[in-house]
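Morning!

This is the sequence you dropped in the shared folder:
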Amino acid sequence: MKNEREANSQIDLKKFSWIKQHAPCFRIQPDHVDIIYEPAEFYDTLKDQVSRAKDRIVLSSLYIGTGPKEVGLIDEIEKALKSNDRLKVTILTDFTRGTRGDQNTCTLVQKLKNYNNVTICMYHSPDLRGILKKILPQKFNEVVGLSHMKICVFDDNLIMTGANLSADYFTNRQDRYFHLTHCKQLANFLSGIVQVVCEFSFHLNKNGLLYFHKETEDFEKEIDFHPFDDNIDPSGENFRTKFHRSMAELVEKFKNEPTSSQNDQKTTVEIYPLIQMFPINIDVDNRVTHQLITDASESATIHITSGYFNLTPDFEDAVLQSTSTFSILTASPEVNGFFGARGVLGAIPDAYTLIEKQFFEKLDNESKIEIFEYFRKDWTYHAKGMWFYFENKLYPSLTLIGSPNYGFRSVFRDLEVELAILTDDLSLQMKLHRERLNLYKKSTKVSDETFQRPSRRIPLWVKFVTKYIRKFF
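The structure's back. Tokens below.
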């Protein structure tokens, strides 16, 4: 039986060597990949890794919350800084989310600036400028674009996730979390991505003030690029060009390093970091993911999950026209993060229901596509990613894990990074399979009856506005 399973796990990794045209390849050992299943375990692992870090801590998140758990995480970082002069800490969040309200990410992390070797940055989208920046209120300005990357590096270990660093993501908001160890080159590359974004972000100084690119106001007078100041950089063209060039140089550097693609020829795990930063003309994750779907054979099964199901037309067409079998897992309205919100935001679950219904209506009885909805009482659902089961295999040999949701925002507006992890190692494939099943076991299959329930009635005004606003979420 074991030999049968091992034979069923075999896949030719060389079939995916084309990805090297788009991203560097890193090889690690299968037993250096661990999967975290629950938010509480994610939080505990974060604190444990912080306490063990000797040389570097790099955290990238949309924002960091301000509750007791987040304070506990920052306190752990401060404790590590106190006991280790050589420890370097870099924190990157989004400007619009990180500065919202009186108590925010800036006020939480400011005390870390009392220590040497601490860099705290806030990315501001070049698309939020001019009249939009002036008229959009804080709660809505993030729809224009933001830094959505979720990367946590601790020395030569890392956690790749779709979760933000906030209390609900540590308690009852389901996501995915991969803990990779002994992966120095991959950690260096992901840290490099964060460092490049920091070069084009606002920096927090010891006084709690934010200055673009560096921590002093004087430096702002010397630069010719800026995300939104037309006096320095009309239309932001210099910002986009220089940002693109710096990120492209980082990618090329690691693509050309032998250690990134030839670390150990005996390993059976290959990892490709896929970057998506359309505002600066980087379209890697979108193209690679699209090709993985279109290249999949009739005997393949592809599982896609997103808490916010809103595929772009290209992705939707690729799925609908594919001969592969598809299973899509998304949030039921009750576990959508906006369920029960006040005002306009409270209608967002209805908008996602409408988008899901419109997609479902494109399926026929012969379709090889099924939709499932996740439900867990008193929880919300935020997981995203894909699992590829090739050629009738029992277990997946490829997964995508990271921040993209495969919708309009992910492709066109935000900064995103995910890992394509390929393996022919049976034990790791079984881990990937178990992770997927763990999410699907809390779901039910969508049918015609689903959308006939009174709770799924969509207000007329939501039907009208969704077609105009779906490109913003």
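Headline: The chain has 16 helices and 21 strands.

More detail when I'm at my desk.
O.
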